Amino acid sequence: MYHDAWADLDKDMDFKKAYEAKHGEDSWTSFLDDARAIFSNQWDEIWVYNAKLSSDR
């Protein structure tokens, strides 16, 4: 997925609502419980912009 700016990540994409529409009401909590059981660690990454290695978008 491509983002033009960091601010794009501030937009509420309402993933929870979309997930429950697909998998049923109150399925979100089960999704979070499963995710916690599956993943043992997590981290964030910040990539540095390099114009020479980036597209013209």
Write up what this structure looks like:
The longest helix has 11 residues, at 28-38. Helices cover 35% and strands 0% of the residues. It is elongated. It starts with 14 loop residues before the first helix and ends in a 19-residue tail after the last helix. The chain has helices at residues 15-23, 28-38. The chain has one domain (6-53).
Tally the helices: 2
Number of strands: 0
Tally of individual domains: 1
Low-confidence stretches: none
The secondary structure category is mainly alpha
Order of helices and strands: HH
Indicate the percent of residues in helices.
Answer: 25-40%
Main beta-sheet strand count, sense and barrel state: none
Relative strand content: under 5%
Rounded mean pLDDT score = 86
Shape: elongated
- Rounded to the nearest angstrom, the distance between the terminal CA atoms is 13 Å
Radius of gyration: 16 Å
Labels describing this entry:
single chain, 57 residues, 35% helix
Brief account:
The protein has 57 residues and is mainly α. The chain is 35% helix and 0% strand. The protein starts with 14 loop residues before the first helix and ends in a 19-residue tail after the last helix.
